[in-house]
Every structure is written in C-alpha cells, then in structure tokens.
Fold this sequence. Notes:
Mean pLDDT: 83
Number of helices: 19
Largest sheet: none
Strand content: under 5%
Radius of gyration: 23 Å
Amino acid sequence: MQNKKKSSMHVLIHGTLILTAAGFISRILGFFYRIFLSNTIGAEGMGIYQLIFPVYGLCNALSSASIQTAISRYVASELSHNSEKGAKTTLYAGLFLSLSFSTVMAIIVYSFAEPIATIFLQEDRCIPLLKIMAVSLPISAIHTSIHGYYYGLQKPSVPAFSQLAEQITRVACVYCFAIIALKKGIPLTPILAVYGLLIGEAASVLYCAAALSLHKSSIARSLSETPSYQKQMKKILALAIPLSLNRFMINLLQSTEAVLIPTRLRMFGLTNTEALEIYGVLTGMAMHFILFPSALTNSISVMLLPAVAKAQSGNNQKQINMAVDSGIKSSLFIGILCTGIFLLYGDEMGTLIFNNKAAGSFITILSWLCPFLYLSTTIGSILNGLEKTGIVFFHNIISLMIRILFIIFLVPKVGIIGYLWGILASQLIIAMMHIWSMKHYVSISLSAIEWIVKPIFCLASAAIITHFLLTYIPFSFLNPLFLLAMKCGLVLILYCILLFFLSKKNLFKAC
C-alpha cells in the first residue's frame, strides 16, 4: 500500500513538473508575444482583441471545456479498472459530442457576428475578429478532448507539448505576418492576432492527432466488459451538462463584466479610446503577469482532478487527503512568494517590459490577489474531482456577482481602481468559501505556522537579503531588464532555500 501511495505521488509530481515546464515556456513566449502585440497594434488594439475572448469563453463553455473535464474524469475511472478500451471509448464518445457542439456554436457565431459585436460587445470593429474566431472553435474542440484523455491517463506530456506547439506556431506566424504587412505597407490591426489564434489551434490538433495515432497502451488487458459508445456518451453528458451550464453562467457573467468595464469607465469620464486602452493594459498586460505563476498551480490543479477522482473511485481516502494537503500547501507557498515579488517589483515590470506605468501600477495592486487566486483554483479542481461541481458553481457565481457590483457602483466614481478592489474582494471570498466547503468532505491538516507564517518570514528575509546585496554590490552597469530578472531570481532562490531549511519535514519526502 505504501509503494502504491508513493507511485501515485510520483505520477502527480512528475505530471505537474511536465505541465509546469511547458506552461512556463509557453507563458514566456506569451510575454514576448504580448509585448510585440502591444507595440504593433497598440493598447487600444489590445483592448479590442481582448473583447472577443468573453465570447470565445462562452462558446467553449457550451461545447468543449466541460466535456474535457468529463473525459478526464471517466478515463481515470476506466484506468482504475485497467480498461484501455474503455478509456479509448470514452475519448471517442467525448470527441464526437465536443466536435458536434462546437460546430453548432461556430455556425451561430459566424452567422450572428454583427449583432454580437455591435449589441453585446458594443464594438463593431470586433465583427471580423469574431468570424475568424468562430472557425477555430471546432479545431479547438479536437485537441481539448485529446488533452482530457491524456490528463485522465495521467500522462500530461502530450497536452504539454501540444500547448508549446500551439504557442510557438502562433507567435511565429503572427511575427511573420507582421513583417510582411509592414514591408507592403498594410496597416496592422487586431485581426492579425486572431489569425495567429486560429493557426495555433490547428498546429495543436496536428500534434495531438499524431501523438494519439502513435500511442501504445502499457495497461494490462482488463477482463471487465468494455462500455458502449452510447453508455459513455450518457455518462459524459450527465457530468458535462451541469458543468457546461455552470460554466456558461460563469462565462456569461464574465462576459458581462468585460463589456461593463469600458462602459462604466466612459461614465467615469474617459473617452472610448481611453477606456479601451485601460482595458487592454489591464487584461492584456497586467493580468498576464499575475497569472504567469499559475502555470504551476494550474498544472497542480489539472493533475489533482483525475488523481482525486481515481482515489475516490478506489475509496482511498488517505490518498485524497494527501493530494489535497499537497495542493493547498503548494498554492499557498507559490502565492505568498508571488505577492512579494509583484509587490516589490511590479512597477518596474510594467515600465521596463511594457513601457506602461499603468501596467506597473495594476501589477502592484493585484499582487495581493496571488495566494487567494491560486488557492481557489486548486481547491476548485479538487471539489470538481469529488463531483461537487454544484458547490464550485455557486461559489463562482457569488464571486463574479461581487466583481460586477464593484464595476456598476464603484468604477463610475473612482475609475478602474474600483474594479481592482472588486477582484481582490471576490477572490478572498471564493477562497474562504472553497476551504469551508472542502472541510466537509476531506480532512485538512491546516497549519497556519507552517503554511502561512513561515513562508511570509522566508519571503521577508529573502527580500531584505536581496536588497542588501544589490545595494552594496554595484550592478548598475547591467541592463535594467537583466537586473530586474536578477532581483526576482534572487528572491525566488533565497525564499526556496530558507523555506526548505525552516520546514520541519523535507518537502520532497513524499516523493
């Protein structure tokens, strides 16, 4: 039993490391891509480009995202019974459903792009962007389903490399298109970025299809009966429909939130261009810094869901408790570290990387978001793995309603700062609600000293040592960006070393 626990933890840690490495590389590429886009199409162009993503999120919520979760959940269940055929049947049943729904959504968006842009988004320049985005929906559904299959098998290398293939192709294509356009004197618009989105999705599908065709099972043949496609479709729909409705409602509120921000900023006294610029800086620049470390916490969450589902299927409560403790502890450690780094160097990040003071100010304010954001993501995934999707949905709705109320009542009075306060309040509340709910289903050995006080002490010590070193050792000759990276790297390394030696137990003992 002990060896089985260690093996499960190895799979979880190994999978998390693969997804994290791919996520970080992808996000680093994404940073350069965002910098390139902001310099190419401008802050207003970034704002227009960001406006289509609420619609994209709504379509994915109704067509593929929830089916991916269901595929992951039931592939893990079939795996617990050593049924490779059952896992493949689950994949193909989910793929058929996802492709069917996404095709319908693509036709609707393409046909009604004009009213969606002018009435819902209140920006007619989004019409061509929506039409191109619509074509990408069925393509996205294919690789999303295959990702769910490999997550369920707890073999995340295919989704990880698929993510890299998508990002690399997207960045390379947009860069080449931009060079050609500049040489020919063609004006650069946000439509360029949407073509990159479409081509990146296609590259991801090609990689996933190739990987699936070469996949060989390492699972012993099961004596259990292979479920039929119809049976698996019913199981997938039984889980995916409530999840889709939940996600649709959440994405609808997120879309409302996204549309309200520029509108309420105009009520604050800004012009349409100024409102779109601020929206573009916040969502296209600052939030990407805050979400950058979530490459690690998202990887933990993705691996936790099938791990918890598999443990629950085998009635292994100890394994569930172990996974939950590891997930929460990791999220808090990472969140506290990121709060410190963004609080100390957020202004420099915005100014040096994006050449935008507002971006730096947003990063600094949102730094307090990190522990609660990463924690709520991890616990939400655990609750989904325990099939408590209704609880997660209810909490998300409350969180979004808080943000929308802040937008409606505070943004017209104090500007974008009112929305930032709303984000902080909503994430604090959802994290607390998630923890309270999970305590009813899982035994959590919370330790404020070990999980909160010690990391904060290590962070403060690392920041003081870094400041001392960089004050008394002359590094002024270095490039400012390199110096900024050195500061962040020193804080990170010192934090990890101090945390390691202060912990009563070796953090990697479970490995």
